[in-house]
Design a protein that fits this description.
single chain, 4 helices, 34 strands, five-stranded mixed sheet, 20-stranded antiparallel sheet, mainly beta, 677 residues, 3% helix
């Protein structure tokens, strides 16, 4: 009758054991995990009347478990004089993280518990009222995150060649370019995400429909149950922890005046309007015009809060230009571990070993990222079943702070070392920082922008007479200033986005062979169909890095200097062997000049384009009224095209500089036989 109830339960138990080599450390994996996931959803629909509908949704999700250690030994076992995982209160197994510029990298896994979950309730009401279809509703999502992670307790070691000019040589003599050690990552956060909306689908007349909508997404920061909340406020002295260096203040229930309880200001005025329309331009109904514009907000993800990875709970220390044998002694500071390993809750008299690193703090004035999306589309039906569509699609992002493709590469350091005459070594970086009692001070800087514009053309043949086709072409440009290389000048990072693809063509089709033979021959002739998907697109942009911290900023993000007046891209119309050995003209790049951040532009290199066609041939043979035998022959990369646009060595200090390192799969064929009953 008027009631409909549906639901689902999902359970997944993932157990991926470690692969630990006793003879070859490079064979160790970073993929050992043990995770259990459960999801429950329930939907209740109530039809109050022919013009009134209620839809209620309940959701429950849980994930428990995390990563497992994979290292055969730790740095301390190899003679490095540090207190590692085994000396922590957790007595965790070891971890190895070593990066050698121009050589190799070792990234074993570590012990980590990443429990998380949510409960959701959502309500939507639909009311038909004359020419209006009114919809309104909202949702509340209760989220929690319990993080218990030994990451970086055994330290991270980068040998960049700053000492000898060669990363491998620096390793052999024990000179570490950058050493980082942490007390772990811990947090227990909980909060509720709210959202409300109202929408009116208004049929103005027989040819025009207008969509009007408004969302309200009030934002309240997530609460840290143990008060592990940190703020960076230059010049302010903490009252909660009086021994903290100036500028480091704290939130929580007994917060300092300059730090919000949850570390980020509450935002209650996040209103997002939307407007759309559909207009039948011709009387025959074969031509239509559609368009719309909408505002969208992206609240801060819970994963961005890393307060529990900072002093006095679990501090991070970064040292540069130190000796591998005893990093802290060579830096001239007391070893903060094991004393600084995770202790909860620390007393108000807690001491702070400086210099400290601050991760992901939020500024006093924080704006929620916003995206404005807009489009205008013209559609025309040609002969029966054929449709052509052309449209302009664009969006503009402001107050962005999410980094490149979801990474944390955009968390800006406001404490980069300032170059000065005589700064010929990274060893004196700390003395040249604006705030010498801190190393990196990473701020979720909501000042980035992005812009995307595109022309999209689609041709569609709707399924009839056994044939359907869908093809579309996109010509676009995507720019942003994410992924900073120069901490002092945002403009140097404005250029093609890492996801910018100027040209993209996609086509897919299905053709059912028109055979309707009767008699015994039907088992051989009838039931064949051919399916195909083709993709062609431009390559992604890549910046050329220096591989040296010649800016002596302590960031290791310098780009290379571009010394040529010609196009460094050599193109793809060359034998594959030549492209693999040298994809672009490496002679036009060199390590950046001392005291600079490199003059080569963002995304100056364009990776090779990608072309791929997948096809399948299917034969359905009806054995009886209820039983069908299906045969499939599938081919991936039908034309065995060599696709090299997956990765290039863009580090000017690497011996493999300019070489392509990854290729797509060759032609792969598979066959299947299935009985349907």
């Amino acid at each position: 009758g008027k009631h409909q109830i549906s639901g689902s339960y999902f359970f997944d138990n993932w157990d991926q054991p470690a692969i630990i080599s006793k003879t070859n450390i490079l064979a160790d994996t970073n993929t050992a995990n043990k995770v259990r996931v459960q999801n429950i959803s329930a939907n209740y629909t109530y039809t109050g009347s022919p013009t009134l509908l209620f839809v209620t949704t309940f959701g429950f999700s849980r994930q428990v478990g995390g990563s497992l250690p994979t290292a055969p030994f730790g740095p301390g076992d190899a003679g490095v004089q540090i207190a590692g995982n085994g000396a922590s209160p957790l007595h965790a197994p070891p971890e190895l993280r070593i990066a050698v510029t121009g050589g190799f990298a070792v990234n074993t896994n570590h012990l980590g518990r990443f429990n998380r979950g949510s409960e959701t309730i959502r309500e939507m009401v639909t009311k038909l009222w004359g020419a209006h279809e009114l919809r309104f509703g909202g949702e509340a999502v209760r989220i929690y995150n319990d993080l218990y992670n030994t990451f970086s307790m055994d330290g991270q070691y980068t040998f960049s060649g700053q000492y000898s000019g060669d990363g491998v040589a620096d390793l052999l003599v024990g000179q570490v370019g950058t050493f980082q050690q942490a007390g772990g990552e811990f947090k227990n956060q909980v909060g509720t995400k709210w959202g409300f909306f109202v929408q009116d689908n208004w049929k103005v007349n027989s040819r025009l429909t207008v969509n009007l909508g408004l969302r309200w997404d009030p934002f309240v920061g997530y609460r840290e149950t143990e008060g592990r909340v940190v703020c960076w406020r230059p010049g302010e002295q903490s009252q909660r922890y009086p021994n903290a260096p100036v500028g480091l203040v704290f939130g929580g229930s007994n917060r300092d005046a300059g730090c919000p309880t949850n570390g980020v200001p509450t935002k209650l005025t996040l209103f997002a309007p939307r407007l759309g329309f559909a207009y039948r331009a011709t009387q025959d109904g074969k031509t239509s015009v559609r368009g719309g514009i909408g505002f969208f907000h992206t609240p801060i993800e819970m994963t961005r809060y890393l307060y529990g990875s900072m002093a006095p709970w679990a501090p991070v220390y970064v040292l540069q230009g130190v000796n591998l044998d005893n990093p802290y002694q060579s830096a001239g500071i007391a070893n903060p571990f094991p004393k600084s390993f995770y202790i909860t809750p620390p007393a108000a008299s807690a001491t702070f070993t400086t210099p400290l690193q601050l991760l992901n703090t939020f500024p006093a004035i924080y704006r929620i990222p916003q995206l404005i999306s807009y489009n205008l589309i013209l559609e025309r039906q040609l002969v029966s079943g054929w449709l052509v569509r052309a449209g302009y699609f664009g969006n503009k992002g402001t107050h962005l702070a999410t980094g490149e493709l979801g990474s944390r590469s955009n968390v800006r350091d406001v404490n980069a070392a300032i170059y000065a005459p005589g700064a010929s070594t990274v060893a004196n970086n700390q003395s040249r920082r604006p705030y010498p009692k801190f190393t990196n001070i990473y701020i979720e800087d909501p000042s980035n922008i992005s812009i995307y514009n595109s022309l999209q053309v689609t041709i569609e043949k709707r399924f009839s007479k056994g044939f359907t086709l869908l093809a579309n072409y996109t010509f676009s440009k995507m720019l942003d200033d994410l992924g900073w290389s120069n901490p002092f000048y945002r403009g140097s990072d404005y250029g093609p986005s890492v996801g910018d693809v100027p040209h993209a063509f996609h086509a897919s089709g299905v053709w059912e062979l028109p055979a309707r033979v009767k008699g015994p021959a039907r088992f051989l002739v009838n039931g064949w169909s051919l399916n195909s998907v083709m993709n062609w697109q431009s390559g992604f942009p890549v910046s050329v890095l220096s591989g040296r911290d010649n800016s002596f900023s302590g960031e290791n993000r310098d780009r290379a200097d571009y010394i040529g007046g010609e196009n460094p891209n050599l193109g793809s119309a060359r034998p594959h062997g030549q492209m693999v050995k040298q994809f672009f003209n490496t002679k036009l790049f060199t390590a950046n000049a001392t005291g600079t951040f490199g003059n080569s532009g963002k995304g100056i290199i364009r990776l090779p384009r990608n072309f791929n066609t997948d096809a399948s041939l299917t034969k359905n043979t009806k054995l009886t009224e209820k039983n069908t035998l299906q045969f499939r022959a599938e081919t991936f990369n039908l034309f065995n095209n060599v696709n090299l646009g997956r990765g290039v060595v863009n580090n000017a200090s690497s011996a493999q500089f300019g070489q392509l390192t990854i290729a797509g799969d060759p032609r792969i064929m598979q066959f299947a036989l299935k009985l349907l009953f």
